[in-house]
Design a protein that fits this description.
- The protein has 3 domains: 41 residues; 72 residues, Alba-like domain (Translation Initiation Factor IF3); 200 residues, Phosphate transport system protein phou homolog 2, domain 2 (Methane Monooxygenase Hydroxylase, Chain G, domain 1), CATH 1.20.58.220.
- The protein has 10 helices and 8 strands.
- Helix 5 packs across helix 6.
- 33% of the residues are buried.
- GO terms for molecular function: DNA binding.
- Pfam families: MazE_antitoxin, PhoU.
- This is Phosphate uptake regulator PhoU.
Length: 332
């Protein structure tokens, strides 16, 4: 850390020098233009750049299948606007994997393709993205998936179960968008300014989006388990699961409402109600496990996993409520 003394020039202008080492590393010299971004009692300074689109290059010669998919997603989440994938000779399988990865991410499109290079570009304007809208959309999709997954269980509707499984891609796609936006606010204060949200709020949204993504994963798990059930589930078990589902959704909704409200007292009230309800849900889940003892071991095991997924979804709602409490707390 370095310190500088503020001086007054011209009788009314405050000036402060910047460290020469920092200026040299960032290409700042006499005549350079820098940008200032105020944030509470802090003031961030960054060099002004003409080209605001960032480009990253990755050697994919030894990357295939899931490793290549994960590499593309990592470059996307890291915030690169232009992603150049290079190799001595890009194979047909690698090209297919890259295209599938590109289609699974919001805003990406293949811009250039040769034998040894594929360039992907993000076509979205970051200033037009809304982390609030993305998280809201994740909430709607994940809760509808959970509802439809349990409906598929009660009716043994395999087609509906397949639909739930496919919708998990939508939640994952939005999760990647939220992660990309959040990381951009950590990298540059300009991103936070364009969003119109403090970085702490972006962190709260990012943390909650992770919980919603997990709710979607458990809805998908329930759908997969449902496809393995051939005999109708006893009505008393279905009714108990429906009650557990209603309680779990109530926890998630209260947690999300607490997160989104600007009234700190209301947020605290909703968040505490959600956290207290989680303990009741745990007791409710144990009661359903008792009902499963009357079933044959194979069915009881599958239904026990479903009960666990619904219960865990409520836990994730409790985590969102905890985040909302932190958001509502006084700022130091």
């Amino acid at each position: 850390m370095e310190t500088r003394k503020v001086q007054v020039t011209g009788g009314s202008t405050y000036t402060v020098s910047i460290p020469k080492s920092w200026a040299t590393e960032n290409g700042v010299s006499a005549g350079s233009v820098v940008e200032f971004y105020p944030e509470s009692d802090a003031l961030f300074l960054t060099p002004k750049t003409e080209n605001e689109r960032t480009e990253g290059t990755l050697d994919i010669s030894d990357l295939h299948g899931d490793e290549l998919t994960r590499a593309v997603m990592t470059m996307y989440v890291s915030g690169f606007d232009i992603i150049a994938l290079e190799g001595a000779r890009i194979t047909t399988d690698q090209r297919r994997t890259i295209r599938e990865s590109t289609q699974s991410l919001v805003g990406l499109e293949v811009l250039e393709e040769t034998t040894d290079r594929i360039v992907i570009r993000d076509l979205l304007d970051s200033s037009e993205l809304s982390i609030h809208n993305a998280v809201t959309r994740m909430r709607l999709i994940s809760l509808s998936m959970l509802d439809d997954a349990l409906t598929a269980l009660s009716t043994l509707d395999k087609d509906l179960a397949d639909d739930v499984i496919q919708r998990d891609e939508d939640v994952d796609r939005l999760w990647m968008v939220v992660s990309r936006i959040f990381r951009s606010t950590l990298r540059t204060p300009k991103a936070a300014e364009e969003l119109g949200l403090p970085r702490e709020i972006c962190f709260d949204y990012h943390s909650s989006a992770r919980q919603l993504e997990r709710v979607g994963d458990h809805a998908t798990k329930i759908a997969h388990l449902t496809k393995n059930i051939e005999r109708e589930v006893p009505k008393n078990v279905i009714d108990a699961l429906d009650e557990l589902h209603i309680d779990a959704v109530d926890v998630i909704d209260k947690g999300m409402d607490a997160l989104f409200t600007e009234d700190s007292s209301e947020a605290t009230k909703l968040a505490n109600e959600a956290r207290e309800a989680v303990q009741e849900i745990d007791a409710h889940a144990r009661a359903i496990d008792e009902l499963l003892r009357d079933l044959d071991p194979a069915r009881a095991q599958i239904l026990g996993l479903i009960v666990d997924s619904v219960s865990r979804s409520a836990d994730y709602g409790g985590n969102i409520a905890e985040t909302a409490l932190q958001k509502a707390a006084p700022t130091p």
